[in-house]
Amino acid sequence: MPAPRPVARPLAGLVGAVASLGLLSGCVGAEVAAVPAQVREPVIDREAATTLFASLSTTRNTANAARDAAALTSITTGPVLRSSTFAFAAQTAQGAAVVAPHTSVPGTLAAPAAGTADWFYSLGAPGDPAASDGEFVESTLFTRASADAPWLLTYQLATDPAVALPHPVLGGGSAVGPDDGALARGAAALEDVLAFARTGEAAPALDVTDADQLATAHTQGFPVADLSPESGTEERSCAYEAPDPAWLTSPDGVFALASVECTQSVTLTGGWTAPTPTTGTLGTVPPGARLSAWTVTQTVTVLVEAHDDGTSRVVGSRLRPVRTDVTLAP
């Protein structure tokens, strides 16, 4: 006989620690009615989220038009801020047009109970107002340093409307968190996703059908053909960025947004040089320039699912450059 399904509980922390819903309980006599459950309010409600997204849209569009990275620090952090800052420099170097104005609105809100954590998700779905003109579906994680600090957009995942996304389980108006077993499955899924980013090879239990450019993270950077010990060295690494995943319970298991950062470092020796690509050039490096060394770092936001049956899935997005340090050949 299979074990009963664990009872989900409200979220309490970034890594999915749990807390009670704050039920009032005690001895109840024959003449005394049971005290009704006191359900805690989430850290953010629909009205506050709508105001936050309006401010995000206005500030972001103004910053994009002026390519003002400093202005973004009031509304973004982490990989969103780093990739946007780099994009401004790349647009200037390449003579590219500024990003067109875009309005974001909240989707399904999944937030822990007030006073238990400082993060919340806005999760998009095909056809809802959070989908940008039907072109992509936007799912986001906001974090803040404390209850008195501003909310900052930390992770942003844009997916094709055809890609199925998990739905959060909500209880009493707040997000529902995983038990220890689900957390362990989530941690294992994260390891499989990181191994896939590093090698391009997926574990048998990991579905990478919708991995997008996470599938090419292990080859990101500038290509260098026929590299030998005599001509130089290449090092590659991939790791998760902070903050730690904030796990949500779904009908099939748990899921969380995360960001994978991958770096390629190449040093050529003995007079060897290599050209940058003439197409698909990254960032501020001129196309076709000859280099003797470089470091290229890109990030990719992912949604990681860990299912109760032991399988897992990753939904990826496009690679976003955040660093291109180069040494031009003499």
Automatic annotation (TrEMBL):
Q: Which UniProt keywords apply?
A: Signal
Task: Reply yes or no: does the keyword Signal apply.
Answer: yes
Know the name of this protein? DUF8094 domain-containing protein
Q: Which organism is it from?
A: Oerskovia turbata
Indicate the secretion signal residues: 1-30
Q: One Pfam family, short name please? A: DUF8094
User: Is this entry keyworded Amino-acid biosynthesis?
Assistant: no
Q: Which PROSITE patterns match?
A: PROKAR_LIPOPROTEIN (PS51257)
The DUF8094 domain sits at: 41-270
Q: Which InterPro entries match?
A: DUF8094
